[in-house]
Design brief:
Helix content: 10-25%
Structural class: alpha+beta
Strand content: 25-35%
CATH class of the largest domain: Mainly Beta
Shape: globular
Largest sheet: 8 strands, antiparallel
Radius of gyration: 19 Å
Low-confidence stretches: 1-15, 18-30
CATH topology of the largest domain: Jelly Rolls
Number of helices: 3
Number of strands: 13
Order of helices and strands: HHEEEEEEEHEEEEEE
CATH superfamily of the largest domain: Exo-inulinase, domain 1
Length: 218
């Protein structure tokens, strides 16, 4: 009996080590080759939303200042908001149920956001959800929160480093991870389908890259 018990304990440990090694390998591959998919991701139906070269598939739009759209550009394999004007950048395609992964980099106090299920016309934080990137929101809707709807657990942005956002929107169920830690797991039926977008605020330069998505089928 003792020998069988030892086998039972050892096998899960080996499996855990294997899974951990695979996760580390995937993370390392992503860091070394951003804006690319692994063979496993391709087989699972993931697609890149940003090709690493230009803004094909994206459109810059106005928010608070008519005629200003954020002055978005592509630099060094990343979509860049230089912080010269307000605006937002939206995908051309709309999405309903999805798993989205991306990286962002800005100062520790950077003020930005990821728009989920927003409409192309109107204010994206009204027509869809704004997933916060900012740790100093006056009402407490800090990084990881759905602004105006659900507050996230406390989190810290890694200033001037690449941060990983992992976002699932499946029906009314939202799960948000930042750098591997779950910040939000909630349900809200307000928005069902729309574009994905990024926010650009004056004096808040930020970059986005490695943007990939897979549709969730039911």
């Amino acid at each position: 009996m003792r020998g069988k018990k030892e086998d039972t304990l050892v096998k899960p440990y080996k499996m855990t080590r294997t899974v951990f090694a695979l996760l580390l390998a995937a993370a390392a591959a992503s860091a070394q080759n951003p804006n690319s998919l692994t063979p496993a991701e391709k087989s699972a139906g993931w697609r890149l939303l940003f090709n690493g070269r230009d803004l094909t598939g994206w459109e810059a739009r106005s928010t608070s200042k008519p005629g200003a759209n954020g002055d978005w550009k592509v630099e060094n394999g990343a979509i860049s908001c230089p912080g010269t004007s307000p605006g937002w950048l939206s995908t051309n395609d709309s999405f309903s149920n999805f798993h989205l992964k991306l990286q962002f980099r800005g100062a520790e106090k950077v003020n930005s956001g990821v728009f989920l299920r927003s409409q192309k016309e109107g204010q994206p934080h009204v027509t869809g959800f704004e997933l916060q990137i900012w740790n100093y929101q006056p009402a407490g809707y800090n990084t990881g929160s759905l602004v105006g709807a659900v507050k996230a657990s406390p989190a810290k942005i890694l200033g001037d480093q690449w941060n990983d956002y992992d976002i699932t929107a499946d029906g009314n169920h939202y799960v948000v991870l930042l750098n591997g830690s779950t910040l939000l797991d909630t349900r809200n039926p307000t928005h069902n389908s729309g574009v994905i977008g990024f926010q650009c605020q004056p004096d808040n330069p930020i970059e986005f890259r490695d943007i990939r998505i897979v549709s969730l089928q039911h």
